[in-house]
Amino acid sequence: HVNFEDSNRPRTPKASAYFYSMVFDLPVPSKLPNLPASEVPSKAKVVWQKFSSQTDFERDVYFYGTFPEDFTWGVSSSAYQVEGGWDADGKGPSIWDNFTHVPGNIKNNDTGDIACDSYNKVEEDIYLLRALGVKNYGFSLSWSRIFPSGRNNSINSRGVDYYNRLIDGLVANNITPIVTLYHWDLPQALQDIGGWESSALIDLFDSFADFCFQTFGDRVKFWITFNEPQVIAWFGYGVGAFPPNVNDPGSAPYRVAHILLKAHARVYHTYDDKYRASQGGVIALCPNIDWVEPKTPSDPRDIEAADRYLQFLVGWFTHPIFKNGDYPEVMKWKVGNRSELQNLPSSRLPVFTAEEREYIRGTADVFCFNTYTSKIVTHATTRLSSWPSSAITDHRAVAWGLRRLLNWIKEEYGNPPIYIIENGVGIKTKSDIDDNTRIFYYKTYIDEALKAYKLDGVNLRGYNAWSFLDTFEWLNGYDPRFGLHQVDFDNPNRPRTPKRSAVYYAEIIHNNGIPLPKENEFLHGEFPKNFWWSVATSAYQVRKPRRTLKVFVDNGKGLSIWDQFSHTPLKISNDDTGDVACDSYHKIEEDVEMLKSLKVSHYRFSISWSRILPDGTTSYINEMGLNYYERLIDALLAANIMPQVTLYHWDLPQALQNVGGWENDTIIQRFKEYAEVLFQRLGDKVKFWITLNEPYNTAYSPYVVGHNLIRAHAEVWHLYNETYRAKQGGLISITINSDWAEPRNPHNQEDIDAARQYLQVQRHLVTALPAAPGFVHAGTLSLGAGDAQNPGQLPEFTESEKQRIKGTYDYFGLNHYTTVLTYNVNYPAVTDRSWLNSGSFWLKVTPFGFRKILRWIKEEYNNPPIYVTENGISERGALDLNDTWRMHYYRSYVNEALKAVVLDGVDLRGYTAWTLMDNFEWAVGFDERFGFYHVNLTDPNLPRCPKASARYYSQIINCNGFPDPATGPHPCLELENSTVCAFCSFRSWSVGLGSFRIQVWKIIQKIP
User: Where's the active site on this chain (predicted)?
Assistant: First the structure.
């Protein structure tokens, strides 16, 4: 900026100058621009306003990309936490040496006397740093190792030699030292004269820093004066938890902070005046900052409370340096007002003179900070949220808070060059070599940093993980472990072992971020010309008319086990039932119109056994029930939509359950007789049959149920094959559900075995596909109760049953939704924190698993014809017809299916989305919604309203895949506008369906 009102035309660099210097690697100016005092609340409140409107999908979607070439990756540690050698080679005692030697002060009476013994392991540590591939290493100097008495009249040459060896070793391996002058371990001799409450420490600290600049500054180009000065002031002198254990929260922290700021400024000016010209480094201080989220972002009082929290937490130290040389206005007002109410003669917050303000202002070349977690704040109180916690109670993993924090720093301090010096997670364990939790933490936090840099223009220059090694973690001793390398503290040699997170972080560094994997790149193209596009429902979930248990027959229908179950109090969420559901029984015409609008070629639905055979047997056939299905099928065929019919989708007639259900061998004959009625009456129009939907969910325990389900399936298949196929020419098979399973640690054989077993159990337990009969060998599993005669084991088939079952399929029917991570056959599967959530706790958005499971089926079963018979995503909470997360799901999953066909040669014949409309979702009632159409259950007419995903799915179908946008607008994207029902929220469609279609397509195309 040029001030044209001044005859000298003075120049002042703008924030853009610093961003430009970052891009082109130009020298960083010695001083950042002076900024005015923050308002109350500060202008940075725009960050909360910007992000408060984010949906969970927008907030959590994973972002791929890389950082600039000069981005610096590193790890950090501190002297007392890793060095050991507390009294070696002339070192003087620090306040932490003495504090830890008092029994009861530290958990397990741990001390830092040996710690990681880094004092004696310089070469080993540098080797590990080189293996990580870091560009920098952040560490601190032990003041009492260099000046045992805290003064420069007692220089310890052997301590100086140690740091020279460390710095020389780093520089020789192209690792930049980031050196902190003070990380809490004050020489005890200086504490004895008052510590940081004494202004004498300003000169003494400057003398120490001057020596360090002179001794190490030819190789050290990045200096930090104080690490987390708030901790020094508050934990040391406020609550007194840390040494020197002064418990004076009202006044001492403010006095100490005042001295720390003046000491920092003195050291900065010493470097600026004496060393910068010859050494060319940068210098700053490094506060800790938690992100603060207003409990109610729409409440200005909560935003003001969050801003005030940050001003007290970080502005306390950064506002004087990066703003106007003084404390934040809100801090001065709050403390001063409270002091006045306490009848004190002056504010407990000290006052800087005009000269001091000018001296302090601008004393940082870059903005460094440490961050670990986020908090929720209200205007009434401050409290932690229920976000997942780590070993340190306050360290809860809330990755999206980092992006918002970086944006706040950008807005509040004019987008200075920013370096994250510490970020990591502690885990309570004696050993965590296979530290999946830490990988998830880094995976999500680094991704949020990438979003801030790429999407928000934050001037982020570097990221350091905390910590390089498992270290002494202050009051917690060695209990929580933060390290990328495990240290065996029970072994006198303190051996180091890289954890899996070290390997992961090394990959991040090597890739300079998170580039999109080749296999995740979007594929443009079409499915085969005869590909089937379908959508699914099931009888109990959508089709049941109004009725009560008091009436046994309504339109001739008998009770099913779900009728009985859903009327048992507390069994279903909100005590929902399927009594009305979507009332598809009376809405054939409306449902078919929806299907026509979707442009599907097929429609998958199930038959209600108890609607056809009220007591489950052929003793009475309900003609009204059959007539309903005949009318539905005729309406579908008239619309050129082919029916895909499931014989059994869980709703067994209660009469059959009363005599044992699937545990009674006689049900095999009952199921066969029921199927024959349907083949006889509907088979001339139905050419695609599914015997059983997801038998695994029916049969999991006891195994005898699975045994009978397989036998029943086989009998029905043979019935159709031998009696009806020649005349009717249809296909018949079974459809199974399966997640994809990945080993949590792909390098761990136990995890690999667990993934393999997980897949085998879900498929082989009840599938009729394999070259073998379909079961795993008896006795190889013990996952459930088993039957009474053979607990925990699978029943055996006779040789004749094996022959009868073998090969009873015309295609492989697959329901698939998500992926899990396995790590032990005896433990439940887990998920990756970076995976997007859905409205169902079990359903994470993992499209990569869809391609993998299709490829696995191809390889495992000799590439059978595959029809995906269910795939979709749920939502909870307030209705939003603009369901971008569902469009993202279908775009991603269907594209993975396209890759399986085009790139992997999978014989995929058709794809079915779940579900046509929001319906009764079993035990969760109507809380979870999977539909393309919303059903208004509060309206007796149950109107259906299309969501944005309905139009998007119809576009995929119309295009038979994904046309390449590089070739220009494709005609298949031009769909006619459809009528929107009156219930639909106008706000979701106010942009007009035509422009909305184009905008949605553009947005979805950009999502990786």
Answer: 422, 870
In terms of C-beta distances under 8 Å and separation of at least 24 residues, what long-range contacts does 230-233 make, across chains too? 230/257, 230/287, 230/288, 230/313, 230/314, 230/316, 230/317, 231/184, 231/288, 232/184, 232/196, 232/256, 232/260, 233/196, 233/257, 233/260
673 has catalytic annotation: no
Q: In angstroms, rounded to a whole number, what is the distance separating the alpha carbons of residues 305 and 444? A: 27
User: How far apart (Å, rounded) are the C-alpha atoms in residues 783 and 791?
Assistant: 10
Tens of pLDDT along 533-556?
A: 999 999 887 765 434 444 344 568
Token pair of 147 as six digits:
């000046």
Phi-psi region of 574 (alpha: psi -120 to 50; beta: other; left: phi over 0): left
Q: pTM for this one?
A: 0.87
Residues linked to residue 606 through DSSP beta bridges, in sequence order: 646
Burial track 212-249 (b if 16+ CB lie within 10 A, e otherwise): bbebbbebbbbbbbbbbbbbbbbbbbbebebbbebeee
Range 182-201 average pLDDT: 98
Tell whether omega for the bond before 702 is within 30 degrees of 0, i.e. cis.
Answer: yes
For residue 378, the one-letter residue type is T
Domain residue ranges of the chain, discontinuous segments joined by +: 15-427+442-515, 525-1006
Q: What is the DSSP letter of 546?
A: S
Q: Residue 976: is its pLDDT beyond 80?
A: no
Residues with Cβ within 8 Å of 268's Cβ and at least 6 positions away in sequence, in order, are 225, 283, 363, 364
- CATH code for the part of the protein at 525-1006: 3.20.20.80
pLDDT tier for residue 975 given thresholds of 50, 70 and 90: low
Give me the numbers of helices (H) and strands (E) for the chain, helices first please. Answer: 37, 31
**3-class DSSP assignment, residue 693:** strand
Known catalytic residue at 228: no
pLDDT of residue 430: 84
Q: Are 585 and 544 in contact (CB under 8 A)?
A: yes
What would the CATH number be for the domain defined by 15-427+442-515?
A: 3.20.20.80
C-alpha to C-alpha distance for 899 and 958, rounded to whole angstroms:
19
The residue with greater pLDDT, 773 or 1004, is: 1004
Neighbour count for residue 53 (Cβ, 10 Å): 9
Residues facing 76 on adjacent strands = 138, 466
Whole-number pLDDT of residue 793:
61
The whole-number average pLDDT for the span 488-493 is: 97
The partner residues of 382 in beta bridges, in order of sequence, read 377
Structural contact between residues 151 and 204, judged by C-beta atoms closer than 8 angstroms: yes
Q: Matching CATH topology for 15-427+442-515 and 525-1006? A: yes
Q: Provide Rg for the chain, Cα atoms.
A: 34
Report pLDDT digits (tens) over 81-131.
999 999 999 999 999 999 999 999 999 999 999 999 999 999 999 999 999
Residue 325 is given by DSSP the state S
In single-letter form, the type of residue at position 649 comes to H
Listed in sequence order, the residues at least 6 apart from 710 whose beta carbon sits closer than 8 Å to its beta carbon are: 695, 766, 768, 774, 775, 805
Marked catalytic residue, from 422, 694, 715, 928: 422
**Report for 266-270, 477-481, 577-581, 936-940: range of highest mean pLDDT:** 266-270
565-573 long-range contacts (CB < 8 A, ≥24 apart) are 571/923, 572/922, 572/923, 572/924, 572/925, 573/923, 573/924, 573/925, 573/927
Structure tokens at 146: 């260099």
Helix or strand run (H / E) with residue 420: strand 418-422
**For residue 3, what pLDDT is reported?**
76
Mean local confidence (pLDDT), 838-860? 95
